[in-house]
Predict the 3D structure of the following.
Amino acid sequence: MTEPAVRARDLTLRYRSGVARRPVAAVTGLSLDIAPGETLAVIGDAGSGKSTLARAIAGYTSRSVDRGVEIAGGSLEVLGIDVRRLRRHGDDELALRVGYVPQDAGTVLDPHLTVGENVAVPLFQRDKAFPKKRAGGIVAEAIDAMHLTLATIPKYPHELSRGQRQRVAIARALVLDPDLLVADEATAGIDATVRGTILSHLAEVQRRRGFAAFIVSSEIGEVRRLSRRLAVLHRGTIVGMGSIDDVLDDPSHPYVDRLAQLARARA
Ligand SMILES: Nc1ncnc2c1ncn2[C@@H]1O[C@H](COP(=O)(O)OP(=O)(O)OP(=O)(O)O)[C@@H](O)[C@H]1O
């Protein structure tokens, strides 16, 4: 793969909400690049636009579907594909090449499917006739890569802890061996010890497979474990971007300054 994993230029994302479906901008004039195999972490306050950006990069944009994110200006290319040209997510090449872990991913697992069946969903979406036995092997490998025991496979999501469900969701996002992983607060709401374990597993899988990653986080400690590069989002615009230390050592915006002080206090 030679094209950038992500290339956004002057990107504006908006929603249409309320009865009048008045457009509301969530991200404005944003530019960023992620090279193949590279990770970019994004940090910012609640409502700064992190999830909106993650959704768009994962290809979940729409002009017609209610509550969908719209590209209202600029450009967004993911793995060389113009996201503006996508019609419906799920039937396009992007869906097969991007692993997406949405916020609260563990809660969006299908409760009627076993863990194994949940993780296998993308394999059968790609190819309805995918050999079941091969799928079984790939699922077992994905489960093992997230350090879950194989005894987890026949269980149902409600039989697992929140941290285990989250790991299953990550396994599902990685099962097609994506070129890009988009993870939106993959460890939110999980206690610190389990969170550390999940991050180590994720970092290890990435080292082995070499995919690019866009990681949303609200924790600078977590960011450091997964990425060398950081983008700081504030009210829908980027107010700092570069290596984590460069961004925090030379805060160019009052919000980045507050973040740097917080990071120093925690160190
Ligand atoms: N489905 C939606 N319809 C309308 N507006 C939305 C929708 N989702 C998000 N927004 C608005 O877009 C802006 C950015 O929200 P977003 O969820 O991307 O922020 P965030 O940084 O991910 O926040 P959090 O950390 O709380 O998840 C906010 O003003 C939010 O109210």
User: Anything to note?
Assistant: The longest helix spans residues 192-209.
